[in-house]
UniProtKB/TrEMBL annotation:
<feature type="transmembrane region" description="Helical">
    <location>
        <begin position="84"/>
        <end position="103"/>
    </location>
</feature>
<feature type="transmembrane region" description="Helical">
    <location>
        <begin position="397"/>
        <end position="419"/>
    </location>
</feature>
<dbReference type="Pfam" id="PF07690">
    <property type="entry name" value="MFS_1"/>
</dbReference>
<feature type="transmembrane region" description="Helical">
    <location>
        <begin position="366"/>
        <end position="385"/>
    </location>
</feature>
<feature type="transmembrane region" description="Helical">
    <location>
        <begin position="49"/>
        <end position="72"/>
    </location>
</feature>
<dbReference type="InterPro" id="IPR011701">
    <property type="entry name" value="MFS"/>
</dbReference>
<keyword id="KW-0472">Membrane</keyword>
<feature type="transmembrane region" description="Helical">
    <location>
        <begin position="228"/>
        <end position="255"/>
    </location>
</feature>
<keyword id="KW-0813">Transport</keyword>
<feature type="transmembrane region" description="Helical">
    <location>
        <begin position="109"/>
        <end position="130"/>
    </location>
</feature>
<keyword id="KW-1133">Transmembrane helix</keyword>
<feature type="transmembrane region" description="Helical">
    <location>
        <begin position="12"/>
        <end position="29"/>
    </location>
</feature>
<dbReference type="InterPro" id="IPR020846">
    <property type="entry name" value="MFS_dom"/>
</dbReference>
<feature type="transmembrane region" description="Helical">
    <location>
        <begin position="267"/>
        <end position="286"/>
    </location>
</feature>
<feature type="transmembrane region" description="Helical">
    <location>
        <begin position="321"/>
        <end position="345"/>
    </location>
</feature>
<feature type="domain" description="Major facilitator superfamily (MFS) profile">
    <location>
        <begin position="18"/>
        <end position="424"/>
    </location>
</feature>
<feature type="transmembrane region" description="Helical">
    <location>
        <begin position="172"/>
        <end position="193"/>
    </location>
</feature>
Amino acid sequence: MRESRIGAAIAARWGWLVLVCIGVSYLLVFTQRTGPGVISDQLQAEFHISAAVLGSITSVQYLLYMLLQIPIGLYGDKSGPERMLVIGVLCDGIGTLVFSSAHSFDWLLVGRAIIGLGDSLIWVNIVLILAKWFAKGRFAAVLAVVNTAGNLGALVTSIPLAAWIAAAGWHIPFTVIGILLVVAGIVDFVVLVGSGPARAAAVENAGSVRVERMPIGKMLADVVRDRLSWATFCCHFGAMGTYLSMVSMWIIPYFMGVYRLPRADAAWFTLTAFIGALVASPVMGWLSDRLHDRRRPYLTTQTLGTLAWLAVVLWRGEPPLVVSGIVMFIVGFGCGSSLLTFAVIRDHVPNERAGVTSGFANTGGFLSAVLLPVLFGAIIDAAGGTTGATHQVARHAYGVAFILPTAFSLVGVMGSVLLPQRRQSVAVRHG
C-alpha cells in the first residue's frame, strides 16, 4: 500500500513532464504528415512526375505505417512502449533529413519510407504510455491534449510553412524540422527511458497492474472476431485516413488548380481544416467523457464529414469559397474527433490486447491514407486535370475525384453505427 502511494505521488509530480514531451514530439511528427501537401506542385515540377506518382510519395509513407500497426501493437503490449516511441521520433527526424536533401525521386521515396517506419511507432505507443499514467475517466481528455499538439503541428505546415518556403525554398525548412525531430527523440529518451523519476513512476504504475498474457495467435483471432475491432477500424478509415491523405497531398493543389489561388491563399484552407481538428480534440474528448458515450458524438461528426465531401461533388468541383471553407472546417473537425477511436478501445478492450486492437484500428486509418492519394491522383490524370490544365478541365477532374473521399468517409459512418452506445469498465487485475 505504501509503495502504491509513493508511485501515485511520483506520477502526480512527473506526469506533466511526460505529457509535455509526448505532446511536443507529436507536434513535430505531425508536420511530416501534412507538410508535403504544401509543396506538391513543386515536387511534381522539380522531379517531373505525374499526379498518380506524386500520390505515391504519401502512400509509401502510410503503407509502411499501415503494415506495421498490428506488429507494433503486439510488441507494445509485450514490452515497454517508451523505447519504441523514442525510436519512432528519431526515425521521423532521419527520414525528414533524407527527404529534404533528396536530389532524385528515389531518395524522396526513401525519406518518406523512413518517416513511415518512424510514424508506425508513434501513436499506438503514445496510447500505451498514457494508459499507464491516466485513469479512464481522464483518458479521452489527455488524448485530446496530445491530439491538439499534433494539430498545432499541422497548423505550422499551413501559412507559416508556406511563407517560409516562399522565402527560402522547401529544402531548408524540412531540414530544420528534421533536426528538431532528432533533438526531440533525444529528449524523449532522457525523460522516458533514462533512470529519472518519470521512468521510475512508469515502472511503478505498470507494476500496479498485472496484465494477463495470452498466445499471439489467440490474441489476433480475438481481435479479428471482435465487432468492436472492425467498428473502430472503419471509424478510423473514414475520419482520420481520408482527411490526412487529402490534406497531406491534394487540398492545396486543388485550390491552386480550380480556384487559381496563389500558394499562400490556398494554404488558408488547410489552416481552416487544421483549426477544425484543433477545436474538435478537446471538445469531443470532454463531451464524450461527460456523456459517458462515444458513439453518438462520433456518429454525428462522421456523418457531417461525409456530407461535407459530398457538397464538393454536388457543386461539380467548385463550391463557393465560403462553402469550401466550411467543408474544410467540418472535415478537420471530424478528424479531430478520431481520438474517440482509442477512447472506445480504452473503455471496452481488456488490457492484454489493447495495444493490438489500437494497432488494428490505426491500420484502418492508414489503409485509407495509402489508397486515397494514388487513386485520387489517377483520376486527376485520367481526366486531364494535372498542372497547367484549363479551369474547366481542372474543375471537372476534381469534381469527379472528390467522389472518392466521400465514399471513404461513408465507411466511417458505418463503423460509428457499430460502436457500443455506452462507456463501460474493463476488468483489470491488480497486483
